[in-house]
Specification:
Blueprint lengths: L1 H23 L2 E2 L6 E2 L7 H11 L8 H14 L4 H5 L11 H4 L1 H4 L8 H14 L4 H13 L11 E2 L20 H11 L3 H7 L7 E2 L9 E2 L10 H5 L17 E2 L8 E2 H8 L4 H6 L4 H15 L10 E2 L51
Antiparallel strand pairs: 1-2, 3-8, 4-5, 6-7
Bound molecules: protoporphyrin IX containing FE and 2-acetamido-2-deoxy-beta-D-glucopyranose (3 copies).
Length: 362
């Protein structure tokens, strides 16, 4: 009896070891070039090449990259356990519903302008026979890898297609209060610190629709680098527009010419619940990378169980190293920083030499 138990125990151990070996052994892909940890990742290498060449203009951190990153968020955040608890459909998260049910979701106010990138991506997803949920997250991670200083994002594969459109009003708006924004993110499973980390995305971002008369206006002076300038520049003193009917809804003024500031970014940078976390990114590129990567790993699989997916992160290109150092823009000084974290001094930063310059559109 004891012997039999031992034998079956050994058999179990043997099976486990085999399973482990299978999980770590690389397979040679049919293209004869690549190896992958799982054969289902093999076709993705060709998808990545196609995207780099034909969607991201040869590997740029430009408009298509920015829009593709924004799309990962607007698809994924369509998930609400709170709605589900009221026995209403709470959305499917990162399920591609924004592409499959695009006539419904791109009409939501918060999704203004997102139809452009959905229309551009759709034929790529079809051509490569990928589910919309997988494709949106893959394209976001690949595009983002073109931004200097970016972390290499995780990419998990195997999201089934969405079965229904997300309900409206789940995507935060720039005129929402901090309380409303934090509550929306908490519903989707994110802490206030993770919200601030996710907003590092606005380091590689511009707005077309907040003020339609100045499309392509960036949120920081270095929109093609994933750097901390957005955390610095949003803290520069400016005039807040809310309640001013001649300002645009959801906009707060940046003192830098050619730069636009979201009211939500302005408020989150100054709110006691988020100000110290915001400031912590000002001179900490490695924290910005690791915190953003970790938060994106959660965002990219909202609505799914990570154990149902295959890790194909190896297909994501390695991003170029950071090419800028945290600084105060020329013509300004540390006195222009609106210190909002009262527990730690603001880091000492170099000031760019020369007269004030204006920020170029994307
Ligand atoms: C409080 C939450 C957020 C609000 C209120 C917000 C709002 C906005 C707005 C209004 C725009 C400008 C869109 C336009 O006019 O073209 C924008 C752009 C952008 N957002 Fe957010 N956002 C939030 C969070 C996020 C998150 C979590 C991500 C992460 C992936 C993200 C990524 C982007 C990117 C990459 C752009 C630039 C798009 C482009 O340049 O075309 N945002 N956001
Ligand atoms: C597309 O993918 C599905 C599974 O996601 C598969 O069943 C189907 O055969 C594929 N079609 C083509 C043309 O490769
Ligand atoms: C509202 O904003 C506009 C644009 O900057 C500015 O010219 C105007 O003086 C502001 N009005 C008030 C009442 O603050
Ligand atoms: C950067 O952030 C990490 C993680 O929070 C922290 O351990 C480290 O001390 C920070 N570095 C600086 C220079 O503040």
């Amino acid at each position: 009896m004891a012997f039999k138990t031992l034998a079956s125990l050994l058999a179990v151990v043997g099976t486990l070891q085999l399973a482990n070996a299978a999980a770590t052994r690389k397979v040679v892909c049919p293209d004869g070039v690549h190896t992958a940890s799982n054969a289902v990742c093999c076709p993705l290498f060709a998808v990545v090449d196609d995207l780099q060449k034909n969607l991201f203009d040869g590997g740029e951190c430009g408009e298509e990259t920015h829009e593709s990153l924004r799309l990962t968020f607007h698809d994924a955040i369509g998930l609400s356990p709170a709605l589900a608890r009221q026995h209403k459909f709470g959305g499917g998260g990162a399920d591609g519903s924004i592409m499959i049910f695009d006539t419904i979701e791109t009409a939501f106010h918060a999704n203004g302008g997102i139809d452009e990138i959905v229309n551009v991506q759709k034929p790529f997803a079809a051509k490569h026979n990928m589910t919309a949920g997988d494709f949106i997250q893959l394209a976001g991670a690949v595009g983002f890898s073109n931004c200097a200083g970016a972390p290499r994002l995780e990419y998990l594969h195997g999201r089934p297609n969405a079965v229904a459109a997300s309900p409206d009003l789940l995507v935060p708006e720039p005129f929402d209060s901090v309380t409303k924004i934090l509550a929306r993110f908490a519903d989707a499973g994110f802490t206030p610190d993770e919200v601030v980390a996710l907003l590092a995305s606005h380091s590689v971002a511009a707005a077309d629709h907040v003020d339609p008369s100045i499309p392509g206006t960036p949120f920081d002076s270095t929109a093609s680098s994933f750097d901390s300038q957005v955390f610095i520049e949003v803290l520069l003193r400016g005039t807040l527009f809310p309640g001013n009917s001649t300002g645009n809804q959801g906009e707060a003024k940046s003192p830098l010419q050619g730069e636009i500031r979201l009211q939500s970014d302005h408020d989150l940078a100054r709110d006691p619940r988020t100000a110290c976390e915001w400031q912590s990114f000002v001179d900490n590129q490695s924290k910005m990378q690791s915190a953003f990567k970790a938060a994106m790993s959660k965002l990219a699989i909202l609505g799914h169980n990570r154990h149902d997916l295959v890790d194909c992160s190896e297909v994501i290109p390695v991003p170029p190293r950071a090419n800028s150092k945290a600084h105060i823009p020329a013509g300004l000084s540390r006195h222009d920083i609106e210190q909002s974290c009262y527990f730690r001094p603001f880091p000492v930063l170099p000031v760019d030499a020369g007269p004030a310059t204006s920020v170029h559109p994307v």
